[in-house]
Task: structure prediction
Amino acid sequence: MQVVYSDKFKASWIFFVTPLENPGHVISGTFKCMLFLFLAPFALLLVVLGVALLGFSVLPNLLLGCLNLCVIGSFMTYLLVRKLPFSSALEGTNQGGTFIRTMLFLIVPGLLGVGHWLLSGFQWVIGLWIVLSAVAFWLILDEVKKKGWQNLQ
Result:
């Protein structure tokens, strides 16, 4: 996630002097903020257009799609974010060496998307998958919140 880079990275000292028991709370809050700012407007637009064009039967599939995006994003946050937000200079970043890792991470969303497309006609499966995705999202975010200082660079 690119949220760790900033032109004003020297102001990140505030994270280190506050009495944070776990910096995972800051990382989790940043992830939820990004979801709200970037996913929520797009999801709301899709819900309005989907209901207008296809009716209310599209809502479970839209909810599952949004939950799957949340699960993928939180999982990538758990695995990849090793710094606090806005705490690194953009000039000093390693620009190479992440292409293969990024392509491997794209396999999981692709498999979830294909599975959703194949099972979209079975509403009971979609309902079960919604519950499982919501539980997975909650559990992964809980693990992100537990990240300690030793897990950061």
Remarks:
- The mean pLDDT is 81.
- The two ends are 14 Å apart (CA to CA).
- The CA atoms of residues 82 and 153 lie 6 Å apart.
